[in-house]
Amino acid sequence: MSDQEERPENGLRKKLPAELPPRAPAPRPAPEPAPAEPVSEQAPQPQLTGRQRLIDGLWPPRLTRAQLIVALLLFGLGFGLAVQVASNSDGDSALRGARQEDLVRILDELDDRTQRLEDEKQGLEKQRQELQSSSDQAAEARRQTAEKERQLGILAGTVGATGPGITMTVQDTKGAVESDMLLDAIQELRAAGAEAIQVNGVRVVANTYFSDTDGSVAVDGNKINAPYRFQVIGKPQDLEPALNIPGGVVQSLEKEQATVSVERSDKIVVDALRQAKLPDYARSSSR
Questions:
Q1: pLDDT tens per residue, range 63-79
Q2: What are phi and psi of 215, to 5 degrees?
Q3: Nearest Cα to Cα of residue 167 among 220, 234, 216, 217
Q4: SS3 167
Q5: In degrees to the nearest 10, what's the CA dihedral of 278, 279, 280, 286?
Q6: Where do the structural domains in the chain lie, given as residue ranges?
Q7: Residues whose CB is less than 8 angstroms from the CB of residue 209 and which lie 6 or more positions away in sequence, other chains included
Q8: CA 185, 223, 182 angle in degrees (round to 5)?
Q9: Which residues of 1-25 are buried (b: 16+ CB within 10 A; e: fewer)?
Q10: Which strand (E) or helix (H) includes residue 171?
Q11: What is the pTM of this model?
């Protein structure tokens, strides 16, 4: 019996295939695709040329208010220069085409105009000098007037005064000093160059008078008591010797048993003032 034949149990013969076909291999699973790499959100910027960067910097323009004003001023200046150049060019063109007689006439007119302007300039310069001189004279006149007013105010007793001078003090314990003795002292001081005097707080002026009243002395009706204190502004080197001359004020007062002391000072203050009084009858003779 052949190896390829088998005998079944039921006795039937069955022919088996000589060789079974080879079994096909099982299919392999397809490989999964690799995950895609994430794409960057920002794309690379293209490289710009120098010209493109310059255009980007200049446009759109970003001007401040000051830059805009400067730009407008420069534009106006340029426009004015252009108009002036164009005007000069037109004038030059007109002069190029002018005749000789016209050119001579134009030059004569320019000379005449230049001369008129020069004369006008000289006239204005002279007027300016006259005004300046007049202003200087007016200022000097005002200064002199103010100085004169100050001097007259010192003499009239309407303003205070300060300066070098002397202080004379008369002690009268016996009450023997009379008004005429004090008036003699005032006259002697004036003759020696006294410029401002006050006695016990009363300003002595041109019309000051001394009088005796109830055993004391009155100056312009103002009663004063001893000691009598004279504050005198003037040159001390002249005032003191004038009081101490033989037979003068000091010796006359000492004969009446009064004590007199004279002190020099670099600063004497005469601050007693008098009210200015208008004359009743006298008028200025100047016109």
A1: 677 777 877 888 888 88
A2: 75, 10
A3: 234
A4: strand
A5: -110
A6: 59-97, 106-156, 161-270
A7: 183, 219, 220
A8: 10
A9: eeeeeeeeeeeeeeeeeeeeeeeee
A10: strand 161-171
A11: 0.52
